[in-house]
Specification:
The protein is α/β, with parallel strands linked by helices. It is built from 16 helices and 13 strands. It has a 7-stranded parallel beta sheet, sandwiched between helices. Strands 8-13-12-9-11-10 form a 6-stranded parallel beta sheet, sandwiched between helices. The protein is globular and about 65 Å long. The protein starts with 9 loop residues before the first helix and ends with a helix.
Length: 427
Amino acid sequence: MFFDELNISDDLLDALDAMNFEECTPIQEQAIPKILEGHDLMGIAQTGTGKTAAYLLPVLDELSHGNYPQDSVNCIIMAPTRELAQQIDQQVEGFAYYLNGVSSVAVYGGNDGIRFEQERKGLELGADIIIATPGRLISHLNGGHIDLKKVSFFILDEADRMLDMGFYDDIMKISSYLSEERQTIMFSATMPDNIQKLAQNILHNPVEVKIAVSKPAEKIQQIAYLCYDGMKDKIVEKVLSDETLDRVILFGSSKMKVKELSIMLKRKGFNVGAMHSDLVQREREEIMLAFKNRRISILIATDIVSRGIDIDDIQMVINYDVPRDPEDYVHRIGRTARANRDGQAITLVTPHDWQHLLKIEHLIEKEIPKPDLPEGCGEKPQMSKNTLQARRHTPGRHGGKGRHDKRGNGGKRHKKPQNKPFNNPQQ
């Protein structure tokens, strides 16, 4: 379906045309008509499926008709992180370029008092759309800087991530300030019990739109290097020595690991920037801008940027650590091979990570090639899918099974159950 087949205004279509948006993604095709009809909506869709436009376009279309109060907030969009809030705000600016009188303000934490004061003034002057992180919006509510009684649209983006970050109570508090007459739209990548509970509490007779868990793009060349921990730095250095690479994201499992990798690679002469939670907002914005403008060629980050970064020409993603959640793997490597480009995804897998790699392969329904290590990096360890040598190569003190097998059943108690909605294609 093309956007001009939807019942949205010509001004919005002009903006979409200017941005080279022509054809709807599946989530947009299914969600936009339902939102325009006034339904509450529960959308199950991952990052990269076009869900932001799926809720922004119908809401902007409604607001552009001028049937809403001009002196009050008409739409609240909740986002889990500052980066995503900023990205949504930028998309609002693009989509609303040809619309008269539709304004937006982004409010998010991690800033100094000057930023907070600017936000306060912006809120008190009034804006149609507020894009906010939960904690920051609570701060403004507590300060009496914003009135939510006339809000017509309440949108939660990446609701699962917000609940993972402990924002359930904040969301419920914000919801209590809103009119019961509002239209509520919620998007989540997964549908665990806590999301179902939230949906039951804030949605009224919702329509459900579900896009199956996305598989990595076919143009992503995926490989896994089997190695020991002590080999990782050498492998990364070898891979990054390719002079044709100038757009790489390197994911680490923790902010400490990101810092260590940044120091190591800078010492080796690589042009890197580190993105982690210890940075103040100004520093994070500067690093992201430098990466977008190619002043930084390698971005080292935690998962904080795996959802939300919107750069189309990433050449390679390197997973220094195997993500524990298989869906995080899909999110991470989905940063490359966008806009029909080619891309590479390299994952470093130690014996301890073997079971997590198997879960990833199960999710993506594909075995990831495991070539020999780059020249000069040593021999890869032998790991077997059938015997799970990776977990059992060290015998116990008495020559019996390793300590991981003491509970029996091949250590199955350590496995995290998969989310059922994505395991059963019939659901």
